Amino acid sequence: MTTQRTSRCADRARPVRLRSGLRAALDAVTDAPAAILTDRLDVVAANGLGRALLTPVLAEDRPNLARFLFLDEDASTAFYPDWDQVADEHVHRLRSAAARDSHDRALHRLIGQLSTLSGPFRSRWSAKRLCGTRPPRVVIDHPVVGRLDLTREDLAPATDRELTLRIATAEPGTASAERLGILASWALEAPDRG
Fold first, then answer.
1. DSSP code, position 193
2. How many other CB atoms sit within 10 Å of the CB of residue 70?
3. Which DSSP category does 165 fall into?
4. What is the bridge-based pairing of β-strands 137-142 and 163-169?
5. What is the pLDDT of residues 157-193, one digit of tens each?
6. Separation CA 67–CA 152 (nearest Å)
């Protein structure tokens, strides 16, 4: 029995330690939501505005965008008005990660969990649809500030290939930019919320 317990613990995904330079880059982004994600879509870290933006996702013990999307469909369909597009993108990202590292046990467990518990994930995974290149636009219906039309940029650090620095911005002068400013104020008023 001890052997099984040890192997299960060894099988878990190891916590990602951020290099000080990558942490500094994340913290330097102050006017836009930013987060660091793994190939498995785990949220490793986020700046203050990123935590405020991703509040529903970060409510999980092990925040993961795919788990939130497919296993909490009520919350995720409310959060992502373009849910189908986001779902296709997440499946494409997980499929790409599996192709790069076929020995990633944590990734296989995540795919197995999603396949077992989510019909929409299972059908997308088995269909093997090509996601193609999507515009970096995402629409979020945030529970505090409402609809945000954001442009998302995913930046790959040169030395941390399994990580992505994701930054979202709103077009200046738009309602989304104004709402993002309100969200920033909300995050400053209660930083422990995110």
1. G
2. 23
3. E
4. unpaired
5. 988 888 999 999 999 999 999 999 999 999 888 655 4
6. 20
Q: Which of 65, 45, 44 is nearest to 56 (CA)?
A: 65
What mean pLDDT value characterizes the chain? 87
Q: How far is CA 109 from CA 1, 11, 83, 131, in A?
A: 21, 10, 23, 22
* DSSP one-letter string for 88-101: HHHHHHHHHHHHH-
pTM value is: 0.86
**Start-to-end CA span in the chain (Å):** 39
Q: How many CB atoms lie within 10 A of CB 112?
A: 10
- Residue 166's DSSP bridge partners are 35, 154
Q: How far apart are CA 66 and CA 89, in angstroms?
A: 10
| Helix, coil or strand: residue 76 | helix
> Which runs of consecutive H residues, i.e. helices, occur in the chain?
2-11, 20-28, 48-53, 55-58, 65-71, 73-79, 83-100, 105-117, 119-127, 175-189
Q: What is the pLDDT of residue 170?
A: 97
Q: What is the pLDDT of residue 47?
A: 95
